[in-house]
Protein: Spermidine/putrescine-binding periplasmic protein
Organism: Moorena producens 3L
Amino acid sequence: MLSKDRQSFLKRPTRRNFLQLATVATLSGLTLSGCGWTLAKVKPTPPSPGDRNKLFIYTWTNYTDDELLDRFTEITGIKALVDVFDSNEAMLARLQASGGGAYSIIYPSDYMVRKMVELDLLLKLDFERIIGMNRLFSKFLNPIYDPNNLHSIPLSWGTTGLIYNSKKLSKVPEDWSYLWQDKDKLSRRMTLLNDVREVMGATLKMLGYSYNSTNPQEIKKAYETLVDLKPSIASFSSDAWRSQILSGDLWIAMCYSSDAAEIMAENPDLQYVLPKSGSSLWTDTLAIPKTAPNLEGAYAWINFMLEADVAAQICERLSFATPNQKAFKLLSREIQEDQSLFPESSALERCEGLAPVDEVSELYDRYWTKLTSG
């Protein structure tokens, strides 16, 4: 029988799919020391009409849930309105098209933070307003994609790997190469993510190159290798694989570790493996657009999310590994030792964070279109 901690992983949505708008209500204040909370070191600024009574958040699907939003409202009184995106690129395109819109908090991934900084879209953070940076593991401070965390706060992290049905496969798929070696047996029983950088990156890594290769010959080799696998792939899916692997129609799927943790709780035959040649190590962050209309609310949200018990509950309910060391200590031993969420350091050393590849992005996109069309 599943423990209560593992049961809490049931019935959660994926990290990378759409959900309807979620809202909570009512405004009060941003600093509530009477509740034992100090959410923001608020600098006095003249309120603009409509700014201080609403906080618009643009995030991955179910990085928030009703319980989290209700608690934020209870503590701060702020009405939070959440909109969701399914890719970093979609988020960026919408922000650029709308001139930033009403969003005061966004959730870009690591490589997108760097790209948005280069595009001058993110506010340089005022650390006098932020409480809780000392709660983070040191490895998440001063990241390569955002030196000194000047524009972003790490919120969650994970890996990309393979989830498989141990009753259907005769051997453990230790690396990406398993898909090619057993492609006939796995024909139409496997899926890859609908993500050019992840799929091309995993193939590059298998071939001994960087996940972030900018070498045209290496990228071409990865494409040609994928063309060889294409006839055996059921689909390129970041979401539909979930129901298919639970039903037994799929035997193996490329996925994000957070999604794997959720699905494995529903079927003990499902296992997650981090490929031995290496994979991607992603970090999702909190950032403030330069066009943010509600800075006080934005800093209140950041400080709320840095609270150890809030971060621990997010990990427990939504299956995202936390970069918050104080939150980690609050987790049950079972969750702390869950290798799908918190892999061993030796395995993580073979992983890379996604980095922008602007100089060859068109080449990636061209190969991806050819691979996924038809």
In short: Confidence is low (pLDDT under 50) at residues 1-49. The longest helix spans residues 216-229. The chain has two domains: 52-155+280-341, 158-279+349-371. The longest strand covers residues 153-165.
